[in-house]
Amino acid sequence: MTPEQRTANEPHAQLTFFHLELAESLTKVQWDIAHAIAQTLVKEDTDVNELGKAIAYFRTYSHQDNAGARFFDYLKTLVRNGRQIGHSQRTSEYYDSIEKACSKYLKAYQDNASVMLQILGWASRLMRYYKNSGSIGEINKPVVESARQAEIAEVISTHNLAIGQVLEATVTAVKGNKVTYELMGTIKLTEKEPKKAQSLSEKQNVKVEILDLKEDGSIKKVKYVG
Fold it and tell me: Which CATH number is associated with domain 159-224?
């Protein structure tokens, strides 16, 4: 390999190293969120040191109750008072970018300060990577707005779901001709089963076929097959 080829491959090798380490501490969705925060902030030319200061503040209080909510309040305070406490107009803009990125991508984890700290820590590292590589790439935007959505997103990310695929499911409710299924221990879907509903009962284990998927790859519709 020539020196030029080695230099060209260094960013990719570095990112692969990051990915391998992250695999041990973050889930696929959390890894995507760390990337999205880093890419967004680099694209907006945000100072990584300001993110570092916010992380340091959060780490100090992360063991306390409602630490996640307090962190978001802290970021909002920085935005409101940016011109008074910042060193320049740019600092105020940094605060605004950080607050928006964190609110967009981390709200679902506000009750889990430990996970938030891990994501933010890696986002900070990845910011330096993207700044040094000179290439941001396309931003994958895994927006999850609640803990429930985060849980479902994690399940989806670990399964290659496809239309026509048959899955194990548990019946959790039967009302008239409507049946509610629970799939993969997390996803619940209610479907009309006019021909089968009366023969099904709660807690019954069945098989369902995926009929349609949403744009994000999650299951939109299923039907009973046995």
Answer: 2.40.50.140
Q: Full-prediction pTM beyond 0.70?
A: no
The DSSP result for 24-91, as a single string, is: HHS-HHHHHHHHHHHHHHHHTT--HHHHHHHHHHHHHHTTSTTHHHHHHHHHHHHHHTHHHHSSSHHH
Output the tens digit of pLDDT for each of the chain's 226 residues.
444 433 344 444 455 444 445 445 778 888 889 999 999 999 999 999 999 999 999 999 999 999 999 999 999 999 988 766 656 678 889 999 999 999 999 998 999 999 999 999 999 999 999 988 877 877 776 666 666 677 677 677 677 889 999 999 999 999 999 999 998 888 889 999 999 999 999 999 999 999 998 877 788 999 999 8
Calculate the alpha carbon distances from 137 to 9, 57, 119, 123 in Å: 16, 30, 19, 15
Domain spans of the chain, in order of start: 3-152, 159-224
